Amino acid sequence: MHRLCPHFVADPRPARGSLFRIYRDTRFSPDKRPFKTHVGIHFSHASGRDAHAPMFYLHLEPENCFAAAGVWHPDDSALTRIRMAIAAEPGRWAKVKRKLELEGDSLMRPPRGFDPNHRFIEDLKRKDFVASVELTEAQVCGHRFMQDFVAACREIQPLVEFTTRALGLEP
Known about the structure:
The protein is α+β, with helices and mostly antiparallel strands. The chain has one domain (38-166): Protein of unknown function DUF1054 (BirA Bifunctional Protein, domain 2). The protein has helices spanning 76-88, 90-97, 121-124, 137-141, 145-166; strands at 8-9, 39-45, 55-60, 65-71, 129-135.
């Protein structure tokens, strides 16, 4: 991972580090099981201040393992900066999007201040800029797991580089 993106790090702290907590927030959920059924690990940009900064993510769960990357639920300022980068550099954004299918929430209407006829208006409506690559159980349990995870991250790396630059961070 360090060779792929040297500014993305694993935080070994037991609390608020790279490994997400195992406890579920059951306050507003009808499902009161106290523990998650998956493990989540994130590798954030060293300058990122919270979970909503650009990151790589590893999700391990029976029959649902994947590597993901991008920015999930950025604050309004970060979201505007990413949208402005897409609007200003459509050619570069086209290269990023070429092999990726973005996931996450979107607005129903174009955001204020953006051309509703823009070539990438559907992307400008996005509230999340995330893509993922599925990992099979054989890959996760195999001896080449780390190589497979890094290869999946390499596939999504253009999205991370774009969002990182859009937010003024070093890629």
